[in-house]
Amino acid sequence: MSGGLCRSDNMGKLFVYIACILLGSVTLTPARPKRVLLDYYHNNEWHTDPSGQLIRYHYTWEDRANSGFSMLGEIFRDHGATTDSLATAPTAENLRGAAVYIIVDPDDEREVARPNFLTSAETAVIEGWVKGGGVLMLMGNDSANAEFPHFNMLAERFGIHFNYDDYHKVTGNRYEMGAFDLQKKGPVFGKSRKVFIKDLSTLSVNPPAHAYFTDSGHVIIAVAKVGLGCVFAVGDPWFYNEYMDGKRLPPDFDNRLAAEDLVQWLLRQGQEQDK
Question: What is the pTM assigned to this prediction?
């Protein structure tokens, strides 16, 4: 009976399909979780832990100290994504299947002895991946703590330039000095408002990028629509544990809520690329 019902006849195709589902002839396959890939190649810092073991740290999923992204990773997973890392140079093959790719605070010689600088070949691969539907998040840092020339070689392919500066400095625990009012700015930050970002690189933008959030004439956040994909850029690692755990910032700051807003927006944009 079910086989006959699933054949096309005088019923509309939609009704036949629904009937097939109800009778068990068609199984709906759940969507695969979107894969979020965090760069561990251009940000490749290690230190010795209290037990004497050499471990990777600083903006990584595994780092649960103030310097880590463990809480950001939890938010991605709470919203149905899988988190992964890339400890080698990006290629078309190892980016395939990722919906979101995050590059944060690339190293220079001040941080590691032999940094892995972004190359022109890598930037071409990443640009092609974005055009095919990938979502790229670029998170810089201030002039004392990040590599700029090679990072900008990538960012400028999307109309974004990280300025070699150190904006929004904060003295001690005077957290209000680092406050920005996002004004529940949709579509990315539809729920969050007051956030904390300090010691950041401002941005310069040209098409296809546009300034998403500015402060006193300085571009703080930029977004670019490129092909089927997009780029989100901010001049600070921003969502590291130190200002996400609720222990340091006053309760009226929305950093965790802003992270949830951004995660949901990134996942809405991201498309797996299997071709």
Answer: 0.87
